[in-house]
Design goal:
With 428 residues, this protein is mostly helical. The chain has one domain. 74% of the residues lie in helices and 0% in strands. The chain contains 17 helices and no strands. The longest helix has 29 residues. The two termini are 39 Å apart.
Length: 428
């Protein structure tokens, strides 16, 4: 294991040999367009996972969903767990770290201190996340990002070797910790409280389909419990991806994709060799939720191997974007990625209206397959709306609000001339 980690560290650290600005690299706004497109792709994966919490009160409680009993529904559940869960929040986290370097460059161009500016941004992000978590979605990640962003701010001057070691250590320790939980649970012999889990799901379903007040009360109840998953699983692995994204941004990994084609291909290979088997091991218990120990062990393996598959996703999309059809796809995804924060919150708003007491109350009436259909339909609408919006405005509505608070000034909302619109978006 130590030799494998050492080899991976050496390969990652080979990025240091990349030039800061490869010859023949595309213009800044074109490079940013690819990052935006990748962020748009991440938005789809985030929605596919998050919509599961909106559509079913049984998601994450450890017992089978009554709406996922058929072979087709179980297959859809397996696909969602295999390809989407634990992967796309890592991709989003990587891009957060990557964009951190762009914000540093923006502050340098404006001649303003970076730390106070970023701290205001993180405070604004935390407030948005708190409102989001209480009103719309208890699984909010923005508050976590705001806290972890402060950690990255403190460590931003540390070298790449230190950050890589921290990232590897965070992933290894998180995986080991959950494996230890599984061992302790197996050693104790405590059986799964199936009856209590079903009662908990039924209570949540009644609250979410009750009134807006009961929805808020249920969110507050679950926010007081979900810190275990966020604090002991999502947060450390997200911070690891912050570090890796920061290194990639500092080294301008996406400045010239063709120059790094060999690296991207290696990352895809590692994703296939390590990430896919790990994802299968992680997803298999989702077909039959009857062994809590196996679930925890699978989570441990999933947390350890998911970064490899996430890297393969990012690398594969970057190579795809270089093809004629891929360029068309990038142009389709980029507007959604440029207003990713607005779209993330809009996803929760639409899902809350569809599934909760704010609107149609459809929670508990559809299975995983239909939730896929809803997710892709919502995302298709977001692609159209984002394209329309970004043709007219320089920022998404929430991005504009956050930027105004960050800079303590009101930025121009209308779209700037085409020549500098891309570079202005780069600053957020």
């Amino acid at each position: 294991m130590n030799d494998d980690v050492s080899n991976r560290t050496k390969e990652i650290m080979s990025l240091q040999n990349l030039s800061a600005q490869p010859a023949g690299s595309p213009p800044a706004n074109e490079r940013q367009s690819l990052v935006d497109a990748l962020r748009g792709f991440a938005l789809l994966g985030i929605l596919v996972v998050n919509i599961a919490s909106f559509s079913s009160a049984y998601y994450g409680v450890g017992v089978p969903d009554p709406m996922a009993q058929s072979v087709v529904e179980r297959a859809a559940l397996f696909v969602r767990t295999l390809l989407f869960e634990t992967k796309f929040y890592l991709l989003f986290s990587f891009l957060f770290g990557y964009s951190f370097t762009l914000q540093m460059q923006s502050a340098e161009r404006d001649g303003k201190p970076f730390a106070p500016r970023l701290l205001r941004r993180l405070v604004g992000l935390w407030v948005l996340g708190l409102v989001h978590g209480v009103l719309l979605y208890h699984g909010d990640i923005l508050t976590t990002y705001a806290v972890l962003g402060g950690v990255l701010l403190v460590l931003r001057r540390r070298g790449d070797v230190f950050l890589v070691r921290c990232a590897i250590g965070l992933v290894l320790l998180t995986s080991l910790m959950w494996a230890s939980f599984g061992y302790l649970l197996a050693f104790s012999g405590v059986p799964l409280d199936t009856r209590g889990a079903y009662a908990e799901a039924a209570q949540a379903l009644a609250a979410y389909r009750g009134t807006p007040a009961t929805v808020v009360a249920q969110h507050l109840r679950e926010l007081s419990q979900i810190w275990v998953v966020i604090g002991l699983a999502q947060a450390p692995t997200a911070l690891a991806m912050f570090f890796m994204g920061f290194i990639a941004g500092r080294r301008r990994l996406f400045a010239n994709v063709e120059a790094h084609r060999a690296l991207f291909k290696r990352l895809i290979a590692w994703g296939l060799v390590v990430g896919v088997p790990g994802a299968v091991f992680y997803a298999w218990p989702s077909v039959r939720l009857n062994d809590s120990v196996r679930e925890i062990y699978s989570l441990s393996v999933g947390l350890l191997t998911a970064p490899f598959l996430t890297a393969a996703y990012a690398s594969g999309m970057m190579l795809l974007f270089q093809t004629p059809r891929g360029k068309a796809l990038a142009e389709l995804l980029a507007p959604a990625g440029r207003m990713a924060l607005s779209n993330y919150l809009l996803q929760s708003l639409v899902c809350a209206w569809i599934f909760l007491a704010y609107g149609l109350r459809l929670m508990g009436t559809i299975g995983p397959l239909a939730s896929f259909a809803f997710a892709f339909a919502i995302f298709a609408g977001q692609l159209l709306l984002s394209r329309w919006w970004m043709e007219r405005f320089a920022y998404g509505p929430v991005e504009w609000l956050l930027r105004a608070f960050t800079n303590l000034s009101l930025p121009a909302m209308r779209r700037r001339p085409r020549s500098d619109a891309g570079s202005s978006a780069l600053r957020d």
